[in-house]
Amino acid sequence: MATNYATVTWDQLHRDARTLSSALMARAPFKGIVAVTRGGLIPAAIIARELDCRLVESISVISYSGESAEDQKEPRVVKAPVAAGDGEGFLIIDDLVDSGETAKIVRDVLPKAHFACLYAKPNGKPHTDQYVMEVAQDTWVLFPWDTAPLFVPPLARNLG
């Protein structure tokens, strides 16, 4: 189970997606982008805008039901990226590559695509071509869509 948590804000996610976009400019133009759902959808939308790419496809792979290693299931594709063919000229985008199991499945489906993600853990790094930031293997990344802002009372109210 993850022992540490890292919270990614909307601002940080947007900055990191733009950083990745900038690095990907050397490989552009792409025929299209394949977002790995669900986590890759928002980064893919930002990157598609920055790279001026209009064709955005998705591949849906299910592998987690919770946040611990025990919650990871055998990954399976539940929606294929039909428009991407074998991936030639396409860019795969995901939010995070963790164990690499999902990335392996996606690479099997799109062997000729370039795989990029925002964050990579050590076990997943070998399965991606490009990423922005490395995250420790024992860290569970909380993305903006996983959290909600809550009211926090002023400290003075807790003194009584």
UniProtKB/TrEMBL annotation:
**From which residue to which does any coiled coil extend?**
none
The Enzyme Commission number assigned here is 2.4.2.22
Task: Name the top EC class.
Answer: transferase
Q: Keywords, A to Z?
A: Cell membrane, Glycosyltransferase, Magnesium, Membrane, Metal-binding, Purine salvage, Transferase
Q: Which cofactor does it need?
A: Mg(2+)
Q: Where in the cell is it found?
A: Cell membrane
Pfam families to which the protein is assigned, alphabetical: Pribosyltran (PF00156)
- For whether the record's keyword set contains Glycosyltransferase, the answer is yes
Gene3D superfamilies per the UniProt record, alphabetical: 3.40.50.2020
Q: Where does xanthine bind?
A: D98, V141
The pathway to which it is assigned is: Purine metabolism; XMP biosynthesis via salvage pathway; XMP from xanthine: step 1/1; Purine metabolism; GMP biosynthesis via salvage pathway; GMP from guanine: step 1/1
Quote the NCBIfam families the UniProt record gives.
PRK09177.1
Q: What does this protein do?
A: Purine salvage pathway enzyme that catalyzes the transfer of the ribosyl-5-phosphate group from 5-phospho-alpha-D-ribose 1-diphosphate (PRPP) to the N9 position of the 6-oxopurines guanine and xanthine to form the corresponding ribonucleotides GMP (guanosine 5'-monophosphate) and XMP (xanthosine 5'-monophosphate), with the release of PPi. To a lesser extent, also acts on hypoxanthine.
PANTHER family of this UniProt entry? XANTHINE PHOSPHORIBOSYLTRANSFERASE, XANTHINE-GUANINE PHOSPHORIBOSYLTRANSFERASE
Q: What is this protein called?
A: Xanthine-guanine phosphoribosyltransferase
Q: Which organism is it from?
A: Swaminathania salitolerans
Taxonomic lineage: Bacteria, Pseudomonadati, Pseudomonadota, Alphaproteobacteria, Acetobacterales
